[in-house]
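Loading example: each entry is read as two labelled lines plus one structure line.
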Amino acid sequence: MNAYQRVLAARNNARPDAMRYIDFMITDFVELHGDRRFADDAAIVAGLGFFGNRCVTVLGLEKGVDTPDRLRRNFGSAQPEGYRKSLWHLRQAEKFGRPVLCFIDTAGAACGVGAEERGQGQAIAENLWEMMGLMVPVLSVIIGEGGSGGALALACANRVWMLENAVYSVLSPEGAASIIYKDAGKVEEASEALKMSARDMLAFGVIEGILPEGEDFAQAFTSVKGAFEGALEGFDKMTGDEIRQERYERFRGLGGDWA
Amino acid sequence: MIEKSLFRDPKLRLEGQENAPEKPPVCECPQCRKTQELPALAQALFLCPRCGYHYKISARDRVGMTLDEGSFREMGVRIASKDPLSFPGYQEKLEQAQKLSGEREAVITGIGSILGQPCAFFTMEYQFMMGSMGAAAGEKLTRLFERALERRLPVVGYTISGGARVQEGILSLMQMAKVSGAVRRHADERLLYIAVLCDATTGGVAASFAMQADIILAETGALIGFAGPRVIEQTTRQKLPEGFQRAEFQLDKGFVGKIVKREDQRDLLGLLLRMHTGGLA
């Protein structure tokens, strides 16, 4: 697969969406809607449930399963109210000492007049700020697309994994083609140049591991579940301060060699 | 990300100046077309004498007009961008940016004082790839907040940035988290951070440290937003209204605490710093 084919694979509608992972590994999931400020944004699914015998907070960027569902969820591109919903749940997780599990699949945060009027930048900034201070563990997995700040808003985590055909990027290859190459047709070159694959991310130290998907995603669910299980056990022995410190150091080390 | 045309300004430093000592270069106001000789304009803080337009200014000029004379001790002067992705054309772009701006990176950081109040200070350079943030800028900002925390200093920062630097890929995105972590730690120690959002503050900078300050000020007329106006127009096929995403719009929408003209910024920053020293007026 070349870089652009990998982007297409990450966007493939046949890929399981966030809700499928939640259904698979979270029991008694209770979805809680709304940001208590403006609206409920269906692009972010939030709630709590049991992962094994632990109660966890669950956040998912959800693209939807069919056309009406995808339209309703804005194809997984969250509005500011989506990020404010996740912010509320991050604070709840901290209050009740629950680990946070995040499933990420988005082309990026919503772009539009309404998103700007309601402070898309501020909403994402506040999520980053909140996550960097949490004393509970945060585990994130990119299950399809990890698009820019809209994905990072749920990925300031202690551990980040990617499925083998997922991508993670500062900007969509379409955006890079038009901004850097000034030619919307140069998407394939931009995909190559941006280095978006899971293998690239592992080489940069941006993720902890690559999770196998298997034929028709048969292994994807169990490999994500296994990664979460293994990591959570490790955090049981750590204090809140240590968990927060570890997350700080994880990001503190990124990019220093390139400065 | 934001398009380049927004940054197309009259060239303040004209080439070949040394050969024409008689005539100082002339700048034309992009808003009202009034022409003004550069030395007079610089004297007036790069404000148009007719319409008050705020010219974009260099990071060095910003340091000079904001901090007390001789107080600035710069940090991280050796930190410069590398090319982690071997991104086509990036090396040349970096060299051009360094030549054009005279800076090694898109952000200047250091310790200084404003009206006698000590603070950690940063400002960004729009002529360095639109002030975009890569690994070097992220590292400099992180070290500044860490130093400010160690020395229990407030931070005053001017943001001017198109966002994360695309040519450094995911490592640029990671700087948003890294700097946010340093801002958070500084805040957890009850230390003050004031941001002044300038033209333009967009993308990953607007979605991280620009919007994480205790007090968010904006310079008159600044464009502030997550997605740039051209991207929004292309995506939504909608014509944007006059003044969309400008400082005045952001004040109206509730994301900016106060709009401050350039000539008033130093006094206000000094006052706000003094209000956070814990003493009596």
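The longest helix of chain B spans residues 169-188.
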